[in-house]
Design brief:
The structure is a homodimer. By secondary structure, the first copy, chain A, is of the alpha+beta class. Chain A has eight helices and 25 strands. Chain A has helices at about 35-40, 55-60, 65-75, 110-120, 215-220, 230, 295-305, 330-335; strands spanning about 10-15, 20-25, 30-35, 85-90, 95, 105, 135-140, 145, 155-160, 165-170, 175, 175-185, 200-210, 210-215, 235, 240, 250, 270, 275-280, 280-290, 315, 345, 350, 360-365, 365-375. Chain A is globular. At the A-B interface, strand 7, strand 9, helix 5 and helix 6 of A face strand 7, strand 9, helix 5 and helix 6 of B.
């Protein structure tokens, strides 16, 4: 849902034929080569920030550098005569934009928590007692985060059965539509990041597809949580939207009840960003990031309250960003009630879970899409 | 429990005054400087393998290089006249030996699973139905793995209470005695590692203290597993014992019942390595790695069966290595029945959980100790 106009200018890493990977900024159908622009003096920055195989050096440079570079690029790309040279997007191989340090996935939509709880624990209170007191989360596998466009191999593993577990390909392969925040500025080990200072550490935002094998998850996840059900792949946008570009989307959110502990307390807010989940050519869910209960600042304050440090390249995802309505359920587990009520696609076929060959596309306002095909 | 004799030769990373970090091998009270030995031709290796701030370049070089270097060092350090120059250990600052990629913690001792299940879910079957079918595990935080000797700050967070959660320092801070395996050779994304080939990827072994805040864990861990209860710190040995040095400790283990799925099947085995857990000067538990149910090869085969890749620097821990006897319970949760039956130390004081100032020391045969003091 982004035309990559000059108001956006997200950052990524690309390689053109015969060249080394370097940092670029997306503009329309082209890529501004920031390493080249810094080398020839068009950008008044150290070229070493951008002649890199990831955004990490630039991300580590901090908010003053981020703002200055964005202002320079804005000057370069605005105005009636602005026609900076770009590499055509068709000539650019897009790489994973960040070297992922740790990957944490939260569970920040109450609608998702409620829908999943009702499906998996029928008859019980769907939202667990801790949910409104803290952003529930867990660590995922950083080494299998892949860039948009990377095919996703259907995972094999142990699935529950009436006569004990069987081994084979997952039969309940799902996608989850999430936002992710990328940490630029690290924090010191042992020192919590205050909720009011949390966004100073965040470089930008992406979409995240937290692929999930529900059958593997159902069998393995007690008592230590999801593991192989998630670790086979996590897809993320090729372009990281700078947080500054999202500032205008910040909206007030409903009061949090009960009031969270002091270290999580702030004026409730969220980003107003439309989101959609497309499967095999059909948009099956439309949601909005404003439905998330916990803000990115609260997620980061919680993540560090025990003294855990942030590192440049940490990826912090929101969990499935479902909204309140039936068309806003942002994964198949919710949409199909664990496969029992398949969704019908525009071509007349239906899906309980993903079929081989399905391409899943996540889109979001001001965020770069995430594509992945099941192979 | 190691004098670092010439049969061991574990690897680490050290810095002496005024020098850059480099790879060393421990020998008695000294450190062999492998970067210097390669630079002056004593070792017939590329100095760039060792002039590094972590073992990762050397670990990535693979088993043939590991064997050759070990053979060269063995030749250098054996024989009546062998007196290679070393840096005195007192002049060496020991650094975290590996750049940790992903950190996975398993739950591979059935005794630990049984003891913990009986304490936390009284009246229910203590070992969950999945436990004997697969090595249960989860991802921990790679960014807070610290080297032996690093002080550990008592974490703060939300703890359960009769009137809802309260915020403050953990009152149930625990240590867990574990082994860890360090991955050297990466594997391809999408391609499982066969159980019979798993050890070809493993560079060596360490001890791991998986510090755990039991009160934080009790409140946060449903439904997605432990998170802040573990992520504040994980301590590991400063010296990595090469797997070759453990070959003589390999012993047959009891048959696994039920037979695991084909991808996990191998002749059952374990390492015979005595282990001990010392708290504030008193050894409170003695166990042995031979009591672990799942082998390191099975852990790695499981970790990758869904197509997840291994990266150089992955740390794969066993979970608490408890044995069958009451003196073999390798964490305070088990030893004190969640604090209700405190252990008495040699100085007459007792502990339900760790007190501020306590130093915890893990020791193991052929493995380098892990120390950490609560501050």
């Amino acid at each position: 849902m982004s035309g990559f106009g000059p108001e956006l200018l997200p950052y990524g890493v690309f390689r053109s034929p015969g060249s080394e990977p370097r940092v670029g900024a997306r503009l329309g159908d082209g890529v501004l080569d920031l390493a080249a622009l810094a080398a020839d003096g068009t950008l008044d920055e150290d070229p070493a920030l951008f002649a890199q195989p990831s955004l990490n050096a630039f991300m580590a440079a901090g908010p003053a550098t981020w703002s200055r570079v964005r202002a320079e690029l804005t000057a370069l790309t605005h105005g009636p005569d602005a026609e900076p040279a770009t590499t055509p997007i068709g000539d650019a191989e897009l790489l994973l934009p960040i070297a992922v340090a740790d990957y944490v996935d939260f569970f920040s939509s109450e609608h998702h928590a409620r829908n999943v709880g009702a499906i998996l624990r029928p008859g019980a209170e769907p939202v667990l007692p801790n949910w409104r007191h803290l952003p529930v989360g867990y660590h995922g596998r950083a080494g299998t985060v892949v860039v948009s466009g990377t095919p996703v191999r259907r995972p094999r593993g142990q699935r529950p059965g009436p006569d004990g577990p069987t081994y084979g390909p997952s039969e309940r392969l799902d996608a989850e539509l999430e936002l992710g925040y990328v940490v630029g500025v690290p924090s010191a080990h042992g020192e919590p990041v205050a909720v009011g200072a949390a966004l100073d550490h965040v470089f930008g935002a992406v979409l995240v597809n937290d692929w999930s094998a529900r059958d593997i998850q159902a069998w393995e996840a007690q008592p230590l949580g999801p593991f192989l059900a998630k670790s086979f792949a996590t897809s993320t946008s090729a372009w990281v939207t700078p947080l500054e570009a999202l500032a205008g989307q910040r909206v007030a959110a409903p009061v949090q009840e009960p009031a969270p502990q002091e270290y999580l307390r702030e004026d409730p807010w969220a980003y107003d960003l439309g989101l959609e989940l497309e499967i095999a050519g059909t948009v099956v869910a439309r949601s909005n990031a404003r439905h998330l209960y916990w803000s990115p600042a609260q997620q980061i304050a919680h993540l560090t309250v025990n003294g855990a440090s942030l590192r440049t390249g940490d990826l912090v995802a929101t969990g499935t960003a479902s909204g309140p309505g039936p068309g806003e359920r942002a994964c198949l587990l919710e949409l199909t009630r664990n496969g029992t009520e398949p969704v019908t696609l525009d071509d007349g076929t239906s899906r309980g879970y993903l079929a081989d060959g399905d391409e899943v596309v996540l889109r979001g306002d001001l965020l770069a899409e995430v594509r992945g095909r099941i192979v």
